[in-house]
Write a structure and sequence with these properties.
Number of strands of chain A: 6
CATH class of the largest domain in chain A: Mainly Alpha
Helix content of chain A: 25-40%
Largest sheet of chain A: 2 strands, antiparallel
Strand content of chain A: under 5%
CATH architecture of the largest domain in chain A: Orthogonal Bundle
CATH topology of the largest domain in chain A: Cytochrome Bc1 Complex, Chain D, domain 2
Distance between the termini of chain A: 20 Å
Number of strands of chain B: 4
Number of domains of chain A: 2
Number of helices of chain B: 16
Strand order of the largest sheet of chain A: 1-2
CATH topology of the largest domain in chain B: Cytochrome Bc1 Complex, Chain D, domain 2
Largest sheet of chain B: 3 strands, mixed
Structural class of chain B: mainly alpha
CATH architecture of the largest domain in chain B: Orthogonal Bundle
Number of domains of chain B: 3
Radius of gyration of chain B: 20 Å
Number of helices of chain A: 13
Radius of gyration of chain A: 20 Å
Order of helices and strands of chain A: HHHHHHEEHHHHEEHHHEE
Oligomer: heterodimer
Strand order of the largest sheet of chain B: 2-1-3
């Protein structure tokens, strides 16, 4: 999503994902007494505890195996009206431009950044996000509901300003209900109010050499262009159906999106790209290539009312970004359509 | 051919990757399944049997893509089931489609290629009017020297058609070449010639060809469309194959095959070959070859890593599923513009 250039919310992502013991502790911390028992039984019957699996941690220093929460499989979606809402939410998540046509201004879908239908640990999975809302966010100084959060996704990641309605779904719209039904389903038996291992994108500390789009261009050519295209515009097949999403330009996320921050993009890329090759890039390469993709022009920040410089001061002080900076003699942030 | 079962299952296995599980299609690329004129039994049956290419008006939008025909992949009963499912689920109709009617339409369609745009389909039902006119594709330029290599061969460069068939359709365990991307074919011929990819039959052939000839042959085969001649024959679990193709198994770090090889396995880019309608013995053998380190040289090691995570059961399952898909149209993936 989306959430803009605000300081990312404080998330205590462990440097190395914790072991099973911690999950049990989390469970215990999450609930007390009987609730623990029920949660525990649920967890077992849903295969969370029994079905937990070992996985090599993506973070460079920790080769320790770790168990992540297991969301229910698609086959567990129930029949009836509840199930229908979950399936509509899943469809919205997987194929946003067709299912939320009036509110999607680019060719991206939620699943492009929240992999495996929002299930993939360390790709900001929906099962971990669900229990954290409502949440206080420093950005606007108020409690944000999940609906607020998703509205931000549409505004920034889906570039709703370029959609036929010109903005995100209005408050209370069915799009929010259905997406939340799907998230709620994915979070079946997950604890609420706690940070879960595998939530968010594990942060990658800024490396000693900082970040450099010129080095990043080389990383891009060697590791990304095959799929995302030499020009970063992604690829469509003969029918025009997207195969690989664009990384900059008019069909990409806009300047207000979380992914437009170099630190956030580096975190996403380090654990999730190239597709299927977790941990292939070094921290340095992840930062450099993140700097490279985010040094290209993309749709404007919808919050910009005055000049880019003015909006940069108001909305782009947290995180690392090229917004409002001059790169290769060009002021970035003006936007493309 | 083997029966898959009820309409919903046929739809999931054969149609959902393009039309999407809820039938809404892909914005600007694949039409939705809700235009009443197309939901008529005769029209649905005609489209499913023969496929359609070229401009077609659905609802208020015009599409210009290519849908494959399923005459060789689905039985009369399968087609009746899937057409009934589509009609009832999105077409607002109660009455199903009768397998007897499918059989009669099949007899009429025998040997005919895809419908040429919406205009051609109005012969089935005038209710589809108005439809845009069809202007045929540019004719394939035929290079006599290339045809001679294919049909007659030259010394050690044995005639390609003697093994890969007159239309490049192959025959297990010799691969289909028709419709594979030109860059991919050229890279394979170069790899055989340089010894990076080894095969008793192909190595000598490739070494006897000059670089320009290899490129010309690659261009030629990439532009061929040949109906599938593949048959599932490995006793694989096709439902498992379908899951791996459409969703992957992220718990084992296996992305969806179609995430890289494109929806419906029609190819994902110049170096990402089509897999649909490939002969199953060949597909399974390649997957084993990567797993055992015998085949290397895939860009970025992308395929080797994925193949290494597949079990023998997975290989048979996926190879049989892919063999049951219709072949890709002659069009090759292009960069988004």
């Amino acid at each position: 999503m989306s959430d803009p250039s605000e300081t990312p919310r404080e998330r205590t992502v462990p440097a190395s994902p914790p072991s099973r013991g911690l999950i049990r502790d989390l469970l215990l911390a999450a609930a007390g007494g009987l609730a623990v028992l029920i949660l525990g039984l649920l967890a077992v019957s849903l295969g969370w505890i029994d079905g937990r699996r070992e996985r090599t941690s993506p973070s460079a220093d920790a080769a320790r195996p770790v168990a992540y929460f297991q969301p229910p499989p698609p086959s567990a979606i129930p029949d009836g009206p509840d199930g229908d809402a979950i399936r509509r939410g899943e469809a919205l998540f997987m194929n946003t431009p067709a299912n939320a046509a009036a509110f999607t201004g680019n060719s991206l879908s939620c699943v492009n950044c929240h992999l495996d239908g929002g299930r993939r640990a360390n790709a900001s999975p929906m099962w971990s996000a669900w229990g954290l809302y409502p949440m206080f966010r420093a950005k606007n100084g108020r409690i944000n509901t999940m609906e607020d959060r998703i509205m931000g996704c549409f505004t920034f990641s889906m570039n709703a300003q370029a959609s036929s309605s010109g903005g995100p779904p209005p408050a209370g719209h069915d799009v929010y209900r259905d997406l939340q039904a799907y998230m709620h389903f994915l979070a079946t038996a997950a604890p609420s109010g706690v940070e879960m291992p595998g939530g968010g994108y594990p942060k990658v500390a800024q490396p000693a050499q900082g970040f450099d789009p010129v080095r990043g261009a080389r990383v891009f050519a060697a590791n990304c262009a095959l799929c995302h295209g030499e020009d970063g515009q992604g690829r469509v097949n003969a029918n025009g159906q997207p195969v690989f999403p664009p990384l900059w330009g008019p069909q990409s996320y806009n300047w207000g999106a979380g992914m437009a921050r170099i630190n956030t993009a580096a975190a996403f890329i380090k654990t999730n790209m190239p597709l299927g090759q977790t941990g292939r890039l070094s921290d340095q390469e992840a930062w450099d290539v993140a700097a490279f993709i985010n040094s290209h022009e993309r749709p404007k920040d919808p919050r910009q009312t005055g000049s880019v410089e003015d909006n940069a001061r108001r909305n782009h002080t947290g995180g690392k970004t090229y917004y409002g900076q001059v790169v290769n003699g060009r002021l970035l942030g003006g936007g493309v359509r | 051919m083997e029966k898959i079962s009820g309409g919903e299952a046929v739809f999931a296995a054969a149609c959902s990757t393009c039309h999407q599980p809820n039938g809404v299609g892909v914005r600007g690329a694949v039409p939705p399944l809700n235009d009443p004129a197309f939901m008529e039994p005769a029209v649905l049956t005609a489209v499913i049997l023969r496929g359609v290419e070229g401009p077609i008006r659905v609802g208020r939008e015009t599409f210009d893509g290519a849908m494959p025909g399923f005459a060789g992949q689905l039985t009369d009963q399968d087609i009746a089931n899937v057409a009934s499912y589509v009609r009832r689920t999105w077409g607002g109709a109660d009455a199903g489609v009768d397998p007897g009617a499918v059989a009669r339409a099949r007899a009429q369609a025998a040997g005919a290629g895809p419908w040429r745009g919406g205009r051609d389909l109005t012969r089935v039902s005038p209710a589809l009017l108005p439809q845009p006119a069809w202007s045929g594709p540019a004719p394939l330029p035929v290079d006599g020297a290339v045809l001679a290599l294919i049909n007659e061969g030259r010394g050690e460069a044995l005639a390609c058609s003697s093994c890969h068939g007159p239309q490049g359709q192959g025959g297990d365990p010799i691969p289909r070449l028709a419709g594979l991307p030109a860059d991919y074919i050229a890279a394979q011929l170069d790899a055989f010639a340089a010894g990076r990819r080894r095969n008793d039959q192909m190595s000598g052939v490739a070494r006897a060809l000059g670089p320009t000839e290899r490129r010309a042959l690659a261009d030629y085969y990439s532009r061929l469309a040949a109906p599938s001649t593949a048959t599932p024959s490995l006793d694989g679990d096709r439902a498992l194959g379908e899951r791996l193709a459409l969703r992957g198994d992220w718990s084992r770090d296996i992305p969806a095959c179609f995430a890289c090889h494109g929806p419906s396995g029609f190819g994902g880019g110049p170096r990402l070959p089509a897999l649909a309608a490939q002969h199953p013995g060949y597909t399974a053998a390649q997957l084993s070859a990567w797993a055992s380190g015998q085949r290397t040289g895939d860009p970025g090691g992308l395929m080797g890593e994925v193949a290494g995570r597949l079990s023998e059961q997975d290989r048979r399952a996926i190879a049989d599923y892919l063999a049951g898909l219709p072949s890709s149209p002659a069009t090759v993936p292009r960069n988004r513009r």
